[in-house]
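Entry type: protein chain
Record version: 2
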Amino acid sequence: MYDPYQHADELGLTVLHRPIRTAHELWLPDHNAVVVRTGLRAVHDRSALAHGLAHAVLGHTDDRPKHEVQADRMAAANLIDLDECRELMKWTPDCHRLARELGVTTRLTRVFLNVNHLAG
């Protein structure tokens, strides 16, 4: 199972929790750090950090829309196992229920379903 905190450590990135108002996370390439909003539920914290790490791995230096899409796709691919998702879809097609079972945000679940042509 993908652990974004372990991944950040392996990448040598600093993870900070701060009271951000404008986003759930910020990738600060000049500081080699990802800032995650304090007070997020665990699912949102994990998903936000995975998104920020994707920006780092992809070498993004800004938040243009194309980069946001790429970071969402990578975060979803890291956090969601395709086989597990397919099995869960036999139980429920509901994106919100899938997200809860997968332990990720609904947004990343939708991204994953679309990228893997599972959305119906």
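Comment: The helical segments are 4-11, 42-58, 65-79, 82-91, 95-102, 106-115.
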